[in-house]
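Tutorial, part two.
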Amino acid sequence: MFTGIIEEMGTIQKIEPTLSGKRFTITAEKVLSDLSIEDSISVSGVCLTVIECYAERFQATAVQETLHTSILGEISPGFQVNLERAMSGNSRFGGHFVYGHVDGMGSIVSILDRGENRIIEIEVSSDLQKYMIKKGSVALDGISLTIADISSNRIVISIIPYTLQNTTIIHQKIGNKVNIEVDVVGKYIEKFINSKDDNDRRNEKLLEFLQ
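Running the prediction step on this input gives:
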C-alpha cells in the first residue's frame, strides 16, 4: 500500500520484452537506500515488484494486463516516472490510501497556469468518473491529488508548486495520458448497494442507510 506522496522521479533506462510482459530498468537515488528484491514499489502509480536491485538502478517487471491498462505499455527509455516505496508501519500517513492498482487512463485536455498553481483538466471515462466527487481524492500517475471540480466527462486538478516541481506533472502536455486510480471507498459503497443477498437483514439495513 502507498500514500500517493512521491519520493522522487526516476528515469526508465531500459525496457526489455519478457514471456509475460516487459522488464523495466529504472535509475533512481532516494528509493534505493533500503530497497530490496521482492519489495513493492509504485512506478507512476503502478505497484510493481523489485526483481533486481543495484547501486544506481533497479529492475521490475509488468505483465500484459498492466501494460494494457496503464501508461507503462506506451513509454520508452528516457521517460521519467514517479517513485514511491510501500508504506512502512511506523511512518506518518499523508495523501490517501493508494493501492497501486491502476483503474485506467485519462487524457490531458487543458493546462493553465494560475498564479503559482497549475490547473490541469483531464478527460476520464464514465466508468471511472462514477467513483469521483468534488473535493474527493484521486491518484494520477501515483500522486495523491484532490479533485477541484468535475463535469460530465472531465475532472479538474489544481497542482501546487511543490508537487509541480517534484513529480512528472512538470513534463505533462496536452494529449498526454495519465494513470488513474480512483478512491477505493467508492467501490466498496457500490458493492454494498448492489448486494442481492435478500436473506441477510444486515445488508438490507445497510442498503437503506446508504440510500
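The chain has a mean pLDDT of 90. In part three we will examine how such features are distributed along the chain.
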